[in-house]
Amino acid sequence: MAVEKMSIAKALNESLRLALDTDPKVLIMGEDVGKLGGVFRITDGLQKDFGEDRVIDTPLAESGIVGTAIGLALRGYRPIVEIQFDGFVFPAYDQIVTQLAKMHARSLGKVKLPVVVRIPYGGGIGAVEHHSESPEALFAHVAGLKVVSPSNASDAYWMMQQAVQSDDPVIFFEPKRRYWDKGEVDTESIPGPLHKAVTAREGGDLTLVAYGPMVKVCLEAAAAAQEEGKSIEVLDLRSMAPIDFDAIQRSAEKTGRVVVVHEAPVFYGSGAEIAARITERCFYHLEAPVLRVGGYSVPYPPARLEDEYLPGLDRVLDAVDRSLAF
Fold first, then answer.
1. Residue limits of the Transketolase-like pyrimidine-binding domain (predicted)?
2. Distance (Å, rounded) from C-alpha 124 to C-alpha 227?
3. pLDDT tens for residues 77-105?
4. pLDDT per residue over 215-267, tens digit each?
5. Helix, strand, coil % (nearest 5) of the chain?
6. DSSP code per residue over 79-136
7. Cα–Cα distance measured from residue 243 to residue 241, given in angstroms and rounded to the nearest whole number
8. Where do the H-state alpha helices sit in 6-107?
């Protein structure tokens, strides 16, 4: 067993390195991914080791980056595209939604586009709007796209491997404020399926459902609630499209109460779909309405206000208390 403690950033770097080393058809493209190694140094050292024709510094043109990746995928390559910040993806939204997501169905299954679009997302780093967005629901809504987000180093390493190996396009959201969180990574133990949810903490009174950056907050909330005698289960969704509704249902039937937590605004967020689906599936098992905790429906605020904007421990615990009060 090869177990190593590493940060999420390091785990992603090692996973990308393995993908490049294993398959000569794998390419990495993006703004400053080569000589600089990326703004967050996720691709650090890869161009030096694999060359400028495998790790490609592109112009500042997101639509062109994704469009080029689609063309490369049509010719048999497996491009990994980096969007430098979450808010920069919107110039490429047309290419992703109208071409990348639709080509498989448009060709009646004859064409596959194995493209991974990496997007550092979310707040907590003191950046301004367009650098701290959480647009995952926009992509999860689009048929033909897989949408995933790891919450820890082990998942970052393995989910990237699985995303690169997928013949379908994958939008890979990386929680940027967790890049430096460390955890153990077993580089030899192959995990379960890419879209399977994982129970991060067992509990019996209520289920917190989260993904990406909010899993850590939910684990902290569960630990705090335990001091008051409350047993909270934390389910790490890992995937927003498809969603492992069976895992959520099992946990909901076990605890009778569900709170969905995400950093994106609550309004029309992925928590709405989860709440509706679990209410349909588990109505007679629920002891309380499915509650949602998330960001506010406002443009992302300046750095001095982001602690007020981001859902933190107190807001999660408040939802836990409201649910248990029913």
1. 6-181
2. 27
3. 999 999 999 999 999 999 999 999 999 99
4. 999 999 999 999 999 999 999 999 999 999 999 999 999 999 999 999 999 99
5. 40, 20, 40
6. EEEE-SSGGGGGGGHHIIIIIITTHHHHTTTS-----EEEEEE-S-SS--TTSS---H
7. 5
8. 8-22, 46-50, 62-74, 93-94, 103-106
Nearest-CA neighbor of 289 among 259, 267, 249? 259
- Other Cβ atoms within 10 Å of 10 Cβ, number: 21
Cβ atoms within 10 Å, residue 182: 14
Residues listed for the chain: 326
Q: Compute the distance between CA of residue 224 and CA of residue 185 in angstroms, rounded to an integer.
A: 27
As a whole number, the mean pLDDT across the chain is 97
Note if 285 is an active site residue.
Answer: no
In the structure encoding, which two tokens stand for residue 159, read together? 């989910």
Residue 219's Cβ-side half-sphere holds a number of Cα atoms within 13 Å equal to 12
Instruction: Determine the distance from the C-alpha atom of residue 228 to the mean position of all C-alpha atoms in its chain, rounded to a whole number.
Output: 31
CA dihedral 47, 87, 71, 110 (to 10 degrees): 120
Residue 244 CA: distances (Å) to CA of 36, 58, 193, 195, 250: 37, 36, 11, 7, 10
The sign of the dihedral angle between the CA atoms of 198, 204, 210, 215 is negative
pLDDT tens-digit series, residues 272-302: 999 999 999 999 999 999 999 999 999 999 9
CA angle 131/136/141 to nearest 5° reads 145
Among 49-63, 185-199, 205-219, the minimum mean pLDDT is found in: 185-199
Cα–Cα distance measured from residue 145 to residue 242, given in angstroms and rounded to the nearest whole number: 9
Mean pLDDT of 155-167: 97
Answer whether 0.90 is exceeded by the pTM.
Answer: yes
Measured distance CA(80)–CA(269) in Å, rounded: 26
